[in-house]
């Protein structure tokens, strides 16, 4: 429950930030200009109606996600009488004072007056459709195609939550998910060196492919989700004050490939040890598994795994590439056999949201963390019986990562710390301090010597794994001063 409340706080803050950063100029549409269906009406339908009137739910046997179906109506027949809003259920049901209203009174707020007025005017003006709009096209997709991402501001007004982090293959820099962009920070001098604009508002998962290209999972909450491959070494569009600007939205030399176009955010991503299998999961509850072995040009979607009843929040692939391990908002951790394409086990013991998952290289132990603050272990090929549970973190645990070469686990938590654990004894070895907010993102350097954590307030800390010493601290949001500067690092 607590977590749900927190998610809402996160949403509210993000929404406020979005609004302040990108508040549109007062509507330029003059009152006498005809209403455009796709630009003015469809967004209102998406916001207020599609939740019940899509192809899946079809409340009242009414799917309105294509023009054809919207016009055909449901069990009452055609809901729109061209030119006559007062005779059109499509409008009257929205503005009515009667008990039967849309959305139904017990299910949601009334459509705001000015929006209902746009629908009224559209019908009064002849319920026309924009030229070139296919009557069979999925309106959600049409809206998405028409949406263009904002250009990230040179300086942020507010820090952007760090949801994803990755060390560059040379270990010298960190790629941090910003607001509609990826930010590359040089660790040694804590300096921003590159900004790659992205269509996705946020990055939630990143992995460097063996050829040095970067796979990123992300999205725009409730609107769209994607998995794309970027070349961060591509030629910049411009350079200013030592920062290179790359266009990962339109420049095909930067954004090399889009692997997935989803209706909501993609929240986690992992690459198999041999670099041949990429997997990502998210809000649509599915995990897509791609085969990269034939190169980027011939990437193949191998399978779509629908094994969770709610969002997929964490993901890992066993070192032998045979098993897919996932963590879900449905309070379970699960193992999937990638060859046999079947579920192996469900681990239910967290009895709360499971955020993160990892597996021991020899496949003898599965590790999961969650809202219950526990690090739990279980046998990934067995019946899903718990081996051990360990407390230690003082709050929810968001991430768990297996160290690439040592018998260590690293975890990140809402208790503002990152910790390392002995893989076998599950004893807490080091607690990495210096962050001052929920730690959502965690990454280990390719040589295994450093660990980086990223938090809600945009702060990044890099530590040495062996002794827990702070290497560097900075705020990844351009223009935001770091708290690390105010409180100098302890030696
Ligand atoms: C929370 C769910 C929900 C939402 C949101 C919702 N509806 Fe409905 N709608 C229903 C249900 C259930 C019915 C069937 C019961 C009824 O007709 O009263 C229905 C029926 C209708 C019908 C009659 C269809 C027919 O032929 O029987 C129309 C028209 C309609 N809705 C329009 C809208 C519009 C326009 C919106 C958005 C402004 C909207 N609805 C939002 C649940 C919803």
Q: Can you describe this structure?
A:
The protein has 491 residues and is an alpha+beta fold. It has two domains: 32-146, no CATH class; 165-475, Methylamine Dehydrogenase, Chain H. Helices cover 14% and strands 35% of the residues. The protein has helices at residues 2-22, 37-48, 67-72, 89-95, 113-124, 139-146, 483-486; strands at 165-167, 173-177, 181-186, 191-197, 202-208, 214-220, 224-230, 238-240, 243-247, 255-262, 266-271, 277-282, 286-291, 300-306, 312-317, 323-328, 333-337, 342-347, 354-359, 366-370, 375-378, 386-390, 397-402, 408-413, 418-422, 428-432, 439-444, 450-455, 459-464, 470-475. The chain has a six-stranded mixed β-sheet with strand order 1-2-3-4-9-8, with no helix packed on it. The two termini are 39 Å apart. 43% of the residues are buried. The model is unreliable at 1-30 (pLDDT under 50). Heme C binds next to helix 4.
Fill in the CATH topology of the largest domain.
Methylamine Dehydrogenase, Chain H
Strand order of the largest sheet: 1-2-3-4-9-8
What is the architecture of the largest domain at the second tier of CATH?
A: 7 Propeller
**Number of separate structural domains:** 2
Name the descriptors.
four-stranded antiparallel β-sheet, globular, 7 helices, 491 residues, alpha+beta, binds heme C, Methylamine Dehydrogenase, Chain H, 2 domains, six-stranded mixed β-sheet
Quick take:
14% of the residues lie in helices and 35% in strands.
What order do the helices and strands come in, and which of them pair?
Blueprint: H1 2-22, H2 37-48, H3 67-72, H4 89-95, H5 113-124, H6 139-146, E1 165-167, E2 173-177, E3 181-186, E4 191-197, E5 202-208, E6 214-220, E7 224-230, E8 238-240, E9 243-247, E10 255-262, E11 266-271, E12 277-282, E13 286-291, E14 300-306, E15 312-317, E16 323-328, E17 333-337, E18 342-347, E19 354-359, E20 366-370, E21 375-378, E22 386-390, E23 397-402, E24 408-413, E25 418-422, E26 428-432, E27 439-444, E28 450-455, E29 459-464, E30 470-475, H7 483-486
Parallel strand pairs: 4-9
Antiparallel strand pairs: 1-2, 2-3, 3-4, 5-6, 6-7, 7-10, 8-9, 11-12, 12-13, 13-14, 15-16, 16-17, 17-18, 19-20, 20-21, 21-22, 23-24, 24-25, 25-26, 27-28, 28-29, 29-30
The chain binds heme C.
């Amino acid at each position: 429950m607590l977590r749900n409340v927190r998610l809402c706080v996160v949403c509210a803050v993000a929404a406020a930030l979005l609004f302040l950063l990108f508040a549109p100029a007062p509507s330029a549409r003059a009152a006498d200009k005809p209403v455009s269906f796709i630009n003015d009406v469809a967004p209102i339908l998406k916001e207020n109606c599609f939740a019940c009137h899509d192809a899946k739910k079809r409340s009242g046997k009414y799917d309105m996600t294509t023009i054809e179906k919207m016009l055909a109506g449901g069990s009452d027949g055609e809901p729109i009488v061209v030119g006559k809003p007062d005779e059109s259920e499509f409008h009257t049901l929205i503005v009515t004072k009667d008990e039967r209203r849309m959305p139904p009174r017990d299910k949601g707020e009334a459509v705001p007056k000015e929006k209902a007025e746009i629908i009224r005017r559209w019908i009064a003006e002849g319920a026309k459709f924009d030229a070139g709009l296919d009557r069979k096209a999925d309106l959600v997709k049409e809206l998405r195609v028409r949406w263009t991402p904002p250009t990230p501001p040179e300086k942020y007004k507010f820090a952007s939550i760090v949801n994803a982090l990755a060390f560059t293959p040379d270990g010298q820099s960190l790629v941090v998910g910003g607001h509609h962009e990826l930010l590359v920070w040089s660790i040694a001098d804590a300096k921003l060196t590159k900004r790659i604009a992205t269509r996705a508002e946020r990055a939630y998962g990143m992995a460097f492919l063996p050829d040095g290209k970067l796979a990123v999972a992300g999205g725009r909450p409730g609107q769209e989700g994607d998995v794309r491959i970027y070349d961060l070494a591509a030629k910049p569009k411009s350079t200013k004050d030592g920062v290179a600007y790359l266009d990962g939205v339109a420049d095909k030399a930067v954004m090399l490939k889009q692997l997935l176009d989803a209706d909501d955010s993609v929240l986690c991503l992992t690459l198999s040890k041999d670099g041949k299998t990429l997997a990502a999961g998210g809000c649509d509850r599915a995990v897509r598994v791609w085969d990269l072995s034939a190169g980027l040009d011939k990437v193949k979607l191998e399978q779509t795994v629908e094994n969770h009843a709610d969002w997929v929040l964490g993901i890992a692939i066993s070192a032998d590439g045979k098993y897919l391990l996932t963590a879900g908002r449905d309070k379970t951790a699960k193992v999937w056999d990638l060859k046999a394409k079947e579920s192996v086990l469900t681990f239910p013991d967290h009895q709360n949201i499971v955020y993160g998952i990892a597996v021991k290289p020899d496949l003898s132990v599965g590790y999961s963390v969650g809202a219950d603050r526990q690090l739990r272990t279980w046998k990934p090929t067995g019946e899903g019986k718990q081996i051990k549970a360990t407390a230690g973190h003082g709050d929810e645990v968001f991430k768990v990562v297996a160290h690439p070469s040592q018998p260590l686990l690293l975890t990140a938590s809402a208790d503002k710390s990152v910790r390392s654990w002995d893989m076998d004894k599950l004893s807490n070895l080091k607690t990495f301090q210096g962050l001052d907010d929920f730690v959502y993102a965690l990454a280990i350097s390719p040589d295994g010597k450093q660990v980086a954590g990223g938090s809600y307030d945009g702060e990044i800390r890099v530590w040495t794994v062996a002794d827990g010493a702070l290497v560097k601290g900075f705020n990844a949001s351009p223009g935001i001063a770091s708290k690390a500067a105010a409180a100098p690092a302890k030696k």
